[in-house]
Amino acid sequence: MKTLKVGDKVPDFSVSDDRGNIQKLSNYKDQKLVIFFYPKANTPGCTLEACDLRDNYKQLQDAGYFLLGVSADSEKSQRNFSNKFDFPFPLLADVNKEVINAFGVWGPKKFMGKEYEGIHRITFIIDGKGIIERIIDKVKTKEHASQILE
């Protein structure tokens, strides 16, 4: 797994979100962006993480951050997830793994002794020039907003 590092320039992308809108990195020029990758919509850990971000969204906005969630789920799955929990930020339906592969967050994982390929739960904080400022690779699902705001 070759994950982007602090100081790397993020490649532009163009992916549909849960509302059918096209999201591009270039849409967030001159703005601070948080891109959080999560394994699967509507699963316990991913729900805790996204709900923590939702509950602290005002603080994140006040700190100047825009948020994008990314998983390989379909647009419909992302829309259902977003509607069920009333998320105020877009969830990218990266079914072709364009953004996932560009950031290098797809790779080998272990769960209950089994190995498989999947999305690693990693968050990237990006400056207004598209450069990675910080990476959170040990995401605390119940406290993720405070990790970003540190």
Detailed description of the structure:
- This protein is α/β, with parallel strands linked by helices and 150 residues long.
- 27% of the residues lie in helices and 29% in strands.
- The chain contains five helices and nine strands.
- The strands form three sheets. The chain has a five-stranded mixed beta sheet with strand order 5-4-3-8-9. A two-stranded antiparallel ribbon has the order 1-2. A two-stranded antiparallel sheet has the order 6-7.
- The two termini are 27 Å apart.
Topology:
Blueprint: E1 14-16, E2 22-24, E3 32-37, H1 44-55, H2 57-62, E4 65-71, H3 75-85, E5 91-93, H4 98-103, E6 106-111, E7 114-119, E8 123-126, E9 132-136, H5 144-149
Parallel strand pairs: 3-4, 4-5
Antiparallel strand pairs: 1-2, 3-8, 6-7, 8-9
Strand share of the residues?
25-35%
> For this structure, what is the CATH homologous superfamily?
Glutaredoxin
Radius of gyration: 14 Å
Q: Output the helix-strand order.
A: EEEHHEHEHEEEEH
SSE-based structural type? alpha/beta
Strand order of the largest sheet: 5-4-3-8-9
Mean pLDDT: 95
Q: What summary fits the major beta sheet? A: 5 strands, mixed
Number of helices: 5
CATH top level assignment: Alpha Beta
Uncertain segments = none
Shape: globular
CATH topology call: Glutaredoxin
Top keywords for this entry?
Glutaredoxin, 9 strands, single chain, five-stranded mixed β-sheet, 150 residues, two-stranded antiparallel sheet, alpha/beta, globular, 5 helices
